[in-house]
Specification:
By secondary structure, the protein is of the alpha+beta class. The protein has one domain: Beta-Lactamase. 44% of the residues lie in helices and 19% in strands. It contains seven helices and eight strands, in the order αααββααααββββββ. Strands 1, 2, 3, 4, 7 and 8 form a six-stranded antiparallel β-sheet that branches. The radius of gyration is 18 Å and the shape is globular. The mean pLDDT is 92.
């Protein structure tokens, strides 16, 4: 597994090094390869490491605090108009819960999505070779997990599938990620808040 991480990181370093010197006719192809490699590395690290940071692999004593945080999330966001989801920062980045408006906006049902890895539920569009939603969101979640500091991302294109016909819909989001911790500062969950916005000019 560490070899796979090393190979992806080295490929990414090599591609980024080539980009400034690339001729115009190959620049777009290199940018696509960079986007693909960034996505693959993010998916690998999300699966193997989760969001890194403050969580402890031997943190079974946190279950009561996690239960309390989930109860708080449901009380705070169940009736809210803010699109909200709760993500487990451990390997897999599993979606713990989403509120009804998040489910409606993204075309999922809470019961179907709970327990699924975030990037399995919301992959990058297969129709956009330069899609970077997975890589950028993972990088933000990782920073929030490592620092405990909330982060607002720049407007992010992150396409979703239409629940009726399965076609990809081009969509743009304003995203805020926050760390939910216990009284000792140990990471319990990541709170993911989004609002759909228009395409940037």
């Amino acid at each position: 597994m560490e070899l796979q991480r090393f190979v992806l990181a080295e490929n990414l370093r090599h591609l980024r090094g080539r980009l400034p010197h690339a001729a115009a006719d190959v620049r777009s192809r290199i940018e696509q390869l960079i986007a693909t490699t960034e996505r693959e590395l993010a998916l690998f690290e999300a699966g193997e490491d989760g969001a890194h940071g403050l969580w402890d692999r031997n943190d079974t004593d946190l279950e009561p605090a996690r239960d309390a945080a989930l109860h708080w999330f449901r009380g705070e966001y169940r009736q809210s108009s803010t699109l909200a989801s709760l993500i487990d920062p451990r390997p897999g980045l599993v979606i713990v819960d989403v509120n009804p408006v998040y489910a409606a906006a993204t075309g999922v049902t809470p019961s179907d999505i709970a327990g699924r890895p975030l990037f399995a539920a919301f992959p990058d569009s297969t129709e956009d070779p330069q899609a970077n939603g997975v890589a950028n969101l993972y990088a933000s979640l990782r920073r929030v997990a490592e620092t405990g500091v909330a982060e607002s991302m720049p407007v992010q294109r992150y396409d979703t599938r239409d629940p009726d016909d399965g076609a990809w819909r081009e969509r743009y989001w304003r995203i805020e990620n926050r760390a939910l911790t216990d009284e000792s500062g140990r990471l319990l969950y990541l709170l993911h808040l989004v609002a759909e916005v228009g395409a940037p000019d």
